[in-house]
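Pilot study result, target chain (255 residues):
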Amino acid sequence: MKIPGVNAIKYQLRKLELANRYLNNKYHIHAKQKFVEEIEKTPLRTDIISFLLQQFTTPTVYLEIGVRNPNDNFNKISSQKKYSVDPGYENAANSVDFKVTSDEFFEMLKSGKALTSDIKFDVIFIDGSHLAEQVEKDIQNSLDYLKEDGFIVMHDCNPPTEFHASENYDYILSPASTLWNGTTWKAFVKNRKRENLYSCCIDTDWGVGVISRKVNFGPSNKIENNFFEYYTFDKHRKESLNLISFDTFKSFFTC
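Predicted structure:
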């Protein structure tokens, strides 16, 4: 004799079991701990950008790639001239200067259809696409329009777990939820191999990477990780990123 509702009870028990396994999974617990640690870190990217702009004794020119909400960062930046680029995928209002992709913006610069083709920036902040291939393009294009003593600043270079370093932003059931760093770290680590650039990553606000032609932040990346595996990156995180504190970073400017 079949007891009514038995299958439904088994189904609910199975769901409860799966939920408990999810909540008590060691990888998920670790990811949550790392998330809590990260959001408590200071300073924020705004403070680091402002610090760099203050190092210049002449009027500064600032460019921000990937704005989303201007109140998060762009509106807080003080510079004699500043420009913003964002296609508006995540903000319908999109009150930026150039409502195009970063690729389109740099093409406009080259052709003289935006600003002037010979413009150079003191600080360029890259926070657009979080996928390595596009970030790599943004770095290379930014270098073409960066002053010799200028700085490229990058957000999301230090994903605390592999969940945060996923290629898929839309999957939000992972422990990272909507806090997504993507694969930005790969583009930054790749460029840290270059001997003609200096770079470091400040251990705050999901990893704030800084690239310079002039300020020697320390050695380039010597870690062999040809396939950009997260496990290898995590094992050699400090060396791969040249991960430093903000106090250490500021010390490079006191000489």
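One observation from the pilot: The chain has a mean pLDDT of 92. A full batch analysis is planned for the follow-on phase.
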